[in-house]
C-alpha cells in the first residue's frame, strides 16, 4: 500500500525538482526532494519499501533530467540501506541520528550520482562539484528534512501496513 | 515455499544490496545504449507536459518575487532610465547618420553582404537541471526535426547544444556547463580561443594567444572551428582578462542570456555538426 502511495508523491517531487527548486538554489545546491522523501520513508518503513521508493523516485527524476535512466537510483538505494543499518542499531531514529543520516546520505547519494555520470561519459569534476553543489545541497537538505520527515511520517502512520512494519 | 524463498533472499541484506546494484547497472547500461529510448519517450511525454506547466508557474512565481524585491528601487530606476533614454535618443540620431553614410559607402564599393539562411524551431523550456549538470529540457523533439548536435540560441546569443532527443522533448547542454567547450573568437581582433563553462555558471575564454589584445566589452562569437557550431553566433562580452602561466591568456565572458530564467529558445535546425572523427589517423 505504502509503495502505491509513494508513486504520485515521488513524481510530484521529481517535477518540482526540475522546475521549482532550481529557482531557489544557493550556488549549485538545492534541496534534494526525492532523496529526502525516500530517506524519510526508509526511516519509517520496511527495507523493501524504501528500495522500491528509491527506484521509483530515481527513475522518475532521470526521465526528467539529462543523465541516463537509472543514474540516480544507486545513490538512493545506498542511502536506504544506510538508514536500514542505523535502524537496526538504535531503538528509534531521533533528531540527531536523522540529521546525521541526512548528512551522510547526501554525500553518498551525490557521490554515487557524480561517479555514474562520470562513467557514462559526462564531464564532471568531483572536487569542484563537492564545494559548489554537494555542500550547499547538504545544508539545504539538513533544513528541508524536518518538514518533509514530519509529512512523510504522518503519511506513513496512516497507511494500513504501518503497524506491521513497525 | 516460494514466499519463504523470497523472504529469504530479501532478508540477506548483502545479497539484496548486490541485486539492487546489478539491477541499476543493467538499467543504466540499457539506457546509455539507447535500448530504453522508446520507453523513455512514452513515459517522458506526460511527465514533460506536466513539468512544462510547473516550470511556467515556477517562472511566474520567481518573477513575481523578483518584482516585489525590486519595487522599492523602481522609482530610482525609472529616473535613471529616463536619463538614459534621452542619451540614447541623441545617440540614435548620430547612429542613423552613420548608417546612412555606411549605406552610401557600401553602394559605392559595390559591397554585398551574404548571410547564411538559418532555419529555426521555437521551443519552450520545460525543465531545468542546474546542479551536477547544467542542462535544460525543451518541448521539441525528433517529431519537430530536432537532432543531437543542433545549436540552441536566443536573440541574445548562444544557449547550448542538443545532447539528447526524445519524440517530443530534447535535452540541451548549456554553454555554462563545465563540460561544455565552444570554439570562439573575439569579434574585434579575430583572436581565437575556447569558451568553457565554469562550475560557478560563468564563462571563461581560454587559449587566447598572449600577443592578442583583449579589451573589456569585446564581443565573443563562435568561430565555427571544429564543425560543432555555425560561426558568428554571439556568446557574450569580455568582462576581464588576465595573462595565464603559459603562452595563452584567459578572459572572463558574460553572456547576455540569463540562463536562470530561460523561457523560450530557438533551435537552429538546418545546421548539421560535422563529424571530424573520420580524419582521425588512430595514432
How is this fold's topology laid out?
The complex is a heterodimer of chains A (166) and B (283).
Chain A: H1 2-19, H2 33-42, H3 47-63, H4 73-89, H5 95-119, H6 126-157, H7 162-165
Helix pairs in contact in A: 1-2, 1-3, 2-3, 2-4, 2-6, 3-4, 4-5, 5-6
Chain B: H1 2-11, H2 13-32, H3 37-70, H4 74-108, E1 120-130, E2 134-138, E3 151-154, E4 157-165, E5 170-174, E6 181-186, E7 192-197, E8 203-209, E9 219-222, E10 234-243, E11 248-254, E12 264-268
Antiparallel strand pairs in B: 1-2, 1-12, 2-5, 3-4, 3-12, 4-5, 6-7, 6-9, 7-8, 8-11, 9-10, 10-11
Keywords:
heterodimer, A: 166 residues, mainly alpha, B: 283 residues, alpha+beta, six-stranded antiparallel barrel, six-stranded antiparallel β-barrel, 4 helices, 12 strands, 35% helix, 28% strand
What order do the SSEs of chain A take from the amino end to the carboxyl end, as H and E?
A: HHHHHHH
Residues in helix, % of chain B:
25-40%
Poorly predicted runs of 5 or more residues of chain A: none
Distance between the termini of chain B: 60 Å
Brief account:
With 166 residues, chain A is mainly alpha-helical. Chain A has 7 helices and no strands. Helices cover 74% and strands 0% of the residues of chain A.
Descriptive overview:
The complex is a heterodimer of chains A (166) and B (283). Chain A is an all-alpha fold and 166 residues long. Chain A has helices spanning 2-19, 33-42, 47-63, 73-89, 95-119, 126-157, 162-165. Chain A contains 7 helices and no strands. In chain A, helix 2 (33-42) crosses helix 6 and helix 4 (73-89) runs antiparallel to helix 5. The model of chain A has no long low-confidence stretch (mean pLDDT 87). Chain B is α+β, with helices and mostly antiparallel strands and 283 residues long. In chain B, the strands form 2 sheets. In chain B, strands 1-2-5-4-3-12 form a 6-stranded antiparallel β-barrel. At the A-B interface, helix 1, helix 3, helix 4, helix 5 and helix 6 of A face helix 2, helix 3 and strand 1 of B.
